Amino acid sequence: MIMPRCLWAGDSEPYVSYHDQEWGVPLHDDQKLFEMLILEGAQAGLSWITVLKKRPHYQQVFDRFDAHQIVRYDEQKIQSLLADKGIIRNKLKIASVITNARVYLDILDQQGSFDQYIWQFVDGEPITNRFRVMEEVPAKTPISDVMSKTLKKVGFKFVGSTICYAYMQAVGMVNDHTTDCFRWIECQ
To answer: Does residue 36 surpass a pLDDT of 90?
Structure first.
């Protein structure tokens, strides 16, 4: 029996797997939250499937998104990343990973937890929406606007409101599975 799922998942294995196992599941691991913020930023202007297919290589070349390692990247490492066909070779996006790692570590030092910091935007609880079709799902919201402004103010890069909303969906801060999708109930 085929489970009803959000139409965006289609029948592409990477999309179906991501939809069924990750998207919309509340995530509270600091390092995974950092990873997803970086990957959502890398996706800017591209399709998510592009990043999803490259994610294993991203994890490898960015030291499993260990921010302590990333902040030590030198010009030689940056040049090797710019030459790596396994990632999105955009100089600004690569530079943003290093910048974002510094800001992330500052937040950990100041607040002890990136999880608590990022989940403050939804008061620590996922928002469950009741969209019937994907066309009802917004690209951004007033909450993602506030998140974007706040993240930019502390120094994060590639965190526009649309990226922030996609991030919120990805890490389960909002449940935007359509109500006919089997994951809608499971993600509540």
So the answer is: yes
